Structure formats: structure tokens, C-alpha cells
Amino acid sequence: MIVHFYMFFKSFPKVGKIMRRAAVICEFNPFHNGHKFLLEKIKSEYADEIVCIMSGSFVQRGDIAITDKYARAQAALDNGADMVAELPTVYAMAAAQVFASGGVQLAAELSCDRLCFGAENSIEELYEALAVLDAEDTQKRIAALMQGGDCYPRALSEAVGEAYADVINKPNNILALEYTRACRTYGIEPIAIERAGVDHDEDTISGNIASAAAIREMIRRGDHYAQYTPMKIENVYDIKDIEQILRYLLKTKKPENTKGIAGIGEGLNRRIYRCAQEHHSIEDIFEAAKTKRYTMARIRRAVLSVCLNITDGIQHRPVPYVRVLGYRRRKKKLLHTVSLPLIIDVRRGYDALDEEAKSVFDVDLEAAELMSLCNINSGGLNEFSRGVIII
Predict the structure, then answer these.
(1) Residue 11 phi/psi, 5° resolution?
(2) What are phi and psi of 77, to 5 degrees?
(3) Which pLDDT value is given to residue 293?
(4) Alpha-carbon distance 379 to 372, whole Å?
(5) Do residues 171 and 117 lie in contact, with contact meaning Cβ atoms separated by under 8 Å?
(6) Alpha-carbon distance 212 to 301, whole Å?
(7) Which residue in 121, 156, 163, 240 could disulfide with 125, CB within 3.0 to 4.6 Å?
(8) Residues 6 or more apart whose Cβ sits within 8 Å of residue 75
């Protein structure tokens, strides 16, 4: 009996222990060994709990994810995450500032006290670059350079000068700078962790670590990829499989009807419409629309924003809900800190949203439907019947 009572009381957490909760804003497209390394490092050095805030059906570079969000969330939970929440499509498929701001807002809502992210520079160097970037003179120079035809990344690089251009030009550091800026707004500590093995979109391989871009190419070519990711990817999605649908939408949405679409100002709506009339593949439309002023990522996001009707107005609203894709059963308490509408059961959660929040969620529903058309053998992605993952 004494032993039983001892074990009973021993099972309670120590009084006064402060749990460190880290957020990771991610895409896991797909989840790979580098991501596993990152989560393990966070758990060993920086946090007791990890909340992953993950893109859903579409990703930030303007593409459909290689596999569905449920498979990617499952992989994250199996490899160190305690919860996975979805970053709604309107923020996930946006420029770095909106992407980072939406993710960090959700991190704050889920009571994360720190944000961990991969970077090529230390947090001190990122702070220094950000101070230069935010200076009034720098902002004026960026605006002038963009007015002269430079794309945003090139304008940033030129405006900050040679000393800081190296920081800004490194892969992933534009997002790292925006994470750092957003963390300042929401009172979260940013923690930059040096990337392991290979750069963000590098095609090379180092040991058992390959970039997500390299793994996606392996999957599409039918090459063996198992040594680089713990995921077994059963349903593969490719934007090329819906290019006829995308071409139809682009060819029939006239420029005057797309003026408010996110990222499509300054005549880009007319350019995309013209390219859609002249070219017969989605990749050719992307290439034809690209210029010195418009990066490929911006073109891809703009095209898909036209198809999903993502407007500037909806993209700049505060995140209106928390959609949970999965969590560890013993970490259910993570749900108790949320003040925004919490969506676990999609049908009941959706019905309880106000009209503005529903307009954000509607884009996620449309994105899932569009993704489903890329793989008719997958059985579709019915958001209203798919349950939350609990392990």
C-alpha cells in the first residue's frame, strides 16, 4: 500500500516546474531527417514541448505539397512534436512577412515562449541585419529600388549594403529575419539554430540528410528516398496534374476581376492573364510571367491566389482560429491556453466560426479540394470527415 501511494504521488509533476514551450513554423514538404534532427535538438537544448505550426495543402513557394497535411503531421508527431496546428492557406501561401507574422501569432496563441528556426547565421547577426533593414533610410532605398523594377529580395540585398547583403542573401534568412521581427511584436524569444547538412533548397546530399527539394525530385522520379526521411509517402501530389484546371481558371478570370488578389498588383494581373492565353502548360505560364521585378515564387503564389481567390484583404486579417491537426494525448493541456476559436472537430468548429473566420477556412477547404484533384487514387481529402490525429 505504501508503495502504491508513493507511485501515485510520484506521477504528479513537480510543483513550480516551468515548462519551456517552443514553436516551429514549418512545411515538412516532406518531413525529413534534417527536420527530425531539428526537433531532437530543440527537445534536448531549448524546450520541453514543441508545437509545430505547419502549412496545409499549399506551401509558401506557391505549390501543392508533395503529400497531404495529415501524413506530414503524423510524421512530425512520431518524431518529436507534441502538437501540430495548421497555418491557414491564406498565410501559408504568402510573402515572407505575412507567412512569418501568421505563424508567430499562432505560436503566441498557443502560449509558446520561444520560436526555433533553422538559419545560416546567429541570432545576433540576424538582429544586426534587421536593425539596418528597419532603418528609415534603408526602407526608402528599398521602395526606390522596387519602383525601379527590382524584385523584393534583390532590393533588400542592395539596400542594406555589402556588409549585410551576405546575411540576407543566404537561403532561408529572409524568413529568419521576418520571424525575428514578428517575435519582437508578440513577445516571443527567437532562437536561430544552424542548419544541419545541406541548405534549404540545395540539391546536394550530405550523409543521410537531403533537402526537401531533393527528396521531392527523388519521389517524382521514382528513386529510392527512404534513407532521407522517416516518412513512407503513399499519396503523391503534383501541380502538373491539374494544369488544365488552372489554365481554365486563369484564362477565364479577366484582369478587372483579379485586382484585389494577394500579390497581384502593379499590372501583374494583366501579365498573368496574357500569359495564360498564350501558353499551354502551367510551368510555361510561370516562366513567361517571371521578370526581373517578379520572382518565380511570387508568380507561383499569385497564380494560385487567383485560382483560390485569396485577396489582399483576407491575407492581412489577424489569424481568426486555431486548427489542430494532431497532438500527443498526454499533451492535451496544450489546447487549454487557446483563446481563439479552437477547431478540432471540423464540422462543429467550422459552424461556430463567424463569417470572417469562415472566409479564411473556406480557402483551406478549396485548397484541399484542388489538391485532391492531383491524385484521384488518394480517395480525396474530406476535411469534414477526417479526424484529428491523437497519439
Answers:
(1) -70, -15
(2) -65, -35
(3) 85
(4) 8
(5) no
(6) 19
(7) 121
(8) 28, 30, 31, 229, 230, 231
Contact 239, 29 (CB under 8 A): no
CA distance 163 to 358: 45
Give every CB contact of residue 180 below 8 A, 6+ residues apart in sequence: 123, 126, 127, 130, 190, 192
C-alpha R_g of the chain: 21
Q: How far apart are the first and last CA of the chain?
A: 32
pLDDT tens by residue, 112-162: 999 999 898 999 999 999 999 999 999 999 999 988 888 888 888 889 888
Give the three cell numbers for residue 58: 499549399
Residues 141 and 135: beta-carbon distance below 8 Å: no
Quote the pTM value: 0.91
Residue 342 has φ and ψ, to the nearest 5°, of -105, 125
Residue 371's pLDDT band (cuts 50, 70, 90): very high
d(CA 108, CA 113): 7
For residue 190, the Cα-to-chain-centroid distance in whole angstroms is: 17
Give SS3 for 62.
Answer: coil
Identify whether the C-beta of residue 331 lies closer than 8 Å to the C-beta of residue 48: no
Please state at what angle helix 152-160 crosses helix 123-134, rounded to 10 degrees: 90
Q: Which domains are assigned to the chain? A: 21-120+170-236+317-390 (3.40.50.620), 239-315 (no CATH)
Distance CA 234, CA 262 (A): 33
**C-beta separation of 115 from 188 below 8 A:** yes
**Kind of pairing between the strands at 83-87 and 49-55:** parallel
Helix (H) or strand (E) holding 221: helix 212-221
Q: For the stretch 295-328, what's the b/e string if a residue is b when 16 or more beta carbons lie within 10 angstroms of its beta carbon?
A: bebbbbbbbbbbbbbbbeebbeeebbbbbbbbbe
CA atoms 167, 173, 176, 182: torsion sign: positive
Distance CA 281, CA 265 (A): 23
3-state class percentages of the chain: helix first, strand second, coil last, to nearest 5: 55, 15, 35
